[in-house]
Design brief:
CATH topology of the largest domain: Rossmann fold
Shape: globular
Structural class: alpha/beta
CATH superfamily of the largest domain: P-loop containing nucleotide triphosphate hydrolases
Largest sheet: 8 strands, mixed
Helix content: 40-55%
Mean pLDDT: 88
Number of helices: 28
Length: about 725
DNA sequence: TACTATTTAATTTTT
DNA sequence: TTAAATAGTA
């Protein structure tokens, strides 16, 4: 077998990583240093040079997209398909295990996956059963708490007793929620991982089987793993210790979701003798961009430490534009794109990046205005859309009549006269007799409901019966078609007017195509319909139908991770927006913002343009802003300030560039310590306006954060 | 049940 | 400002 290509295509550290001896290996891969390349080549090397069977390899990613791409690249390298190799997301692989060992995992064979939306509904239901007020117990927060517990591997019974009544109630909600899920055979995202982990821990036979089978484990984006994922990996790798993790501590931007950069350090400790290889040669950006990004990220403490370098061109300086306001910002950016495109470049080679999604609006308005095609990433994905979830719920009821979540979702969608009162009766009956809503509804028909309700419920049950009968022996796509037509769903939206309704009809039609394109795996434990439903829950699909038109790309900095563009605009470079206000209170969060900035800057291949607005309208108020601290962390020689085309700009400009850290009023500036004669001591978080209307936000030690108008308050620096 | 008025809160989101 | 959730009304 000629494997020389493996060495020809790679630089030295890459080669070392790809051909490292078996054993624990940590690859610290800087942005654009070819980490996916290393991962795929290492798999190819294992198979071709080490004669490993693809069956003995597991590769784990965070997204389905990454898994698909990796599989494709590996197959291309090897020249043959590697179907037997386990390659997928933590959730996908866990799901696969649980399907194979449902009974051992304490789950019914027909268990269903709850996505976060379904989970929220479930929590609402628990709150209702416990007679708790949603205003006081926000479902989202509870969802966050429960998932947090699960991600740390804590079951309700693991929680220590608390004397705090608040905490007691939270525990109660968690344990009721869990009991309800167990009763209905429902598994949420975090549960997939926790169950799979517990299955391995508690069942020696299964543990041995998997530990023996997977002689090699490879992990992508390791810096984003949370506690449960780390424990999951550690257990899988426990026997052979052949685990390759690839990650970049400087690109950890999901710690708010439980990602623990510390896992990188932990890895070194838990796998003694682990080899560490750094990939620092960058193949993406110009030297100036890299130097600037290096300088910014260098401000963070406790890094593993990497310095990106390139053999490529020095490139153009980073351009910085101080826009008058957010509209000027958008005009400037789009003007620049126009001239870029005029030079023969593609629109799709430009990305407009921002910290928060709301910022896309102004850009969209201007793009629409000048008639330039664009694509916004983010927002609801295909399988998350309400109308699609409705249709899927019908399909779930066909597959499993006793799915309460599905029943609740569509029993009155479109409205068919089964209101809250009737539903409450059904729910009460179901709870009392410990049966599914469907069965409760059937029984209630006998024991007397008001005539109107009886008729409506009967009609619904009849509909489901018909659907179930008609579905038998039909193709998936036909079932989908049947469901959207006979349920009245599509008719319901056809009658509605407006663009939204039109889009919904289109989406429902698209669902039929999605069903047609779905390829059911022969040796799947599930029948085609159930398998499709699981697929829909685990892979939310694209945000928009694939647009082939050449489009400007708009997305949040988070969504940009992993992508690259010749021309990148980092917009909204203002204190309070980026770094975001809510991240400035804790130093840890600030460092994460800085990593996000690093991620954003390193997306750019040829030209990076940074923009901030001196005045920004936010939540209906105008704010005077100061330039982001990240801008001042970039060495001056790399920055070229772009002057406004309008002469008046010089007049409009109000601040001194050399003091870009921010304005100062009466010696009070951002971050300074102040004393108030009522509120005590605190730290200045924010400053806006000037003169009489100058206001400051102060985080007081005793009373928390407050906005004060300087003119009316006795505040002084200490 | 559907429509309208009012209130509320406003980062980021791989599964 | 705005979108979404809630409450109130026809």
């Amino acid at each position: 077998m000629d494997v020389s290509y493996i060495f020809e295509d790679l630089n030295e550290p890459q080669r070392d990583a790809v051909a490292a001896e078996p054993g624990p290996l940590l690859v610290l891969a800087g942005a654009g240093s070819g980490k996916t390349r290393v991962l795929t080549y290492r798999v190819a090397w294992l198979v071709q040079a080490q004669q490993c069977s693809p069956l003995s390899i597991m590769a784990v990613t965070f997204t389905n997209k990454a898994a698909r791409e990796m599989r494709g690249r590996i197959e291309k390298l090897l020249g043959f398909p590697v179907g037997g190799m386990w390659m997928g997301t933590f959730h996908g692989l866990s799901h696969r295990m649980l399907r194979s060992h449902a009974q051992d995992a304490g789950l019914p064979a027909t268990f269903e996956i709850l996505d976060s939306d379904d989970q929220l509904r479930m929590i609402r239901r628990v709150l209702k059963e416990l007679n708790l007020d949603e205003g006081y117990w926000p479902p989202r927060q509870i969802q966050w708490t429960i998932n947090g517990h699960k991600e740390e591997g804590r079951r309700p019974h693991d929680l220590s007793d608390s004397h705090d009544p608040q905490v007691q109630v939270l525990h109660k909600i968690y344990s009721n929620y869990q009991a309800l899920c167990q009763r209905f055979g429902l598994v949420d995202f975090a549960e997939l991982l926790l169950r799979a982990l517990e299955l391995m821990q508690n069942n020696e036979r299964i543990r041995n089987t998997y530990q023996d089978r997977f002689r090699h484990i490879l992990v992508d984006e390791f810096q984003d793993t949370n506690s449960i994922q780390y424990r999951w990996l550690k257990l899988f790798a426990d026997k052979h210790k052949n685990i390759t993790v690839v990650g970049d501590d400087d690109q950890c931007v999901y710690s708010w979701r439980g990602a623990q950069v510390e896992n990188l350090r932990k890895f070194e400790k838990d796998f003694p003798g682990a080899q560490t290889i750094r990939l620092e040669q960058n193949y993406r950006s110009t030297e100036i961009i890299l130097n600037a990004a290096n300088a910014v990220i260098d401000q963070n403490q406790g890094r593993f430490g990497k310095t990106l370098w390139t053999e490529g061109e020095k490139g153009e300086p980073i351009q910085l534009y101080a826009a008058f306001n957010e509209v000027d910002e958008a005009r400037f950016v789009i003007d620049r794109i126009k001239s870029w495109v005029g030079q023969g470049n593609q629109r799709s080679s430009c990305a407009i990046l921002y910290r928060s999604n709301a910022q896309s609006r102004v850009f969209e308005e201007v793009l629409l205005d000048v008639g330039m095609p664009y694509r916004v990433y983010g927002g609801l994905r295909f399988f998350e859309r309400a109308e699609i979830k409705d249709a899927l719920a019908y399909m779930r009821l066909i597959s499993n009549p006793h799915s309460d979540a599905a029943f609740e979702r569509v029993v009155n969608v479109p409205t068919r006269g089964i209101g809250n009162k009737t539903l409450d009766q059904i729910r009460a009956r179901a709870r009392e007799k410990q049966q599914s809503l469907c069965n409760a509804a059937v029984e209630l028909l006998q024991s007397g409901l008001p005539p109107r309700a009886t008729q409506s419920v009967q009609r619904f049950l009849q509909l489901m019966d018909d659907l179930r009968k008609s579905a038998e022996g039909h193709e998936l796509a036909e079932i989908a078609d049947l469901v959207i037509n006979r349920s009245g769903l599509i008719e319901h939206y056809r009658k509605e007017k407006g663009e939204r309704a039109e889009a919904r009809v289109e989406n429902l039609e698209e669902l039929v195509s999605a069903a047609r394109n779905f390829r059911h795996d022969e040796d799947d434990e599930l029948d085609e319909l159930s398998s499709f439903l699981a697929h829909a829950a685990l892979e939310a699909g694209e945000g928009q139908a694939e647009e082939w038109e050449d489009c400007v790309q708009l997305m949040s900095l988070h969504s940009a991770k992993g992508l690259e563009f010749p021309l990148v605009f980092l917009t909204g470079m203002e204190e309070g927006l980026f770094p975001h206000q809510r991240s400035m209170e804790e130093p840890g969060r600030l460092e994460e913002e800085r990593r996000l900035c690093y991620v954003g800057m390193t997306r750019a291949m040829q030209q990076l343009v940074m923009v901030y607005a001196e005045v920004r309208r936010l939540h209906g108020r105008e704010h005077y802003t100061s330039p982001s601290r990240f801008l001042s962390e970039i060495p001056h020689e790399h920055i070229q300030e772009v002057r406004s085309p309008m002469i008046s700009r010089a007049v409009v400009r109000r601040y001194d560039k050399s003091d870009s850290a921010g304005q100062s009023v009466n010696g009070i500036k951002l971050g300074s310590r102040v004393r108030h004669n009522k509120f005590g001591d605190g730290t200045v978080l924010n400053l806006e306006g000037r003169g009489e209307s100058a206001r400051v936000q102060v985080n007081f030690e005793d009373v928390g954060s407050k906005w004060l108008v300087l003119a009316y308050t006795s505040l002084h620096a200490i």
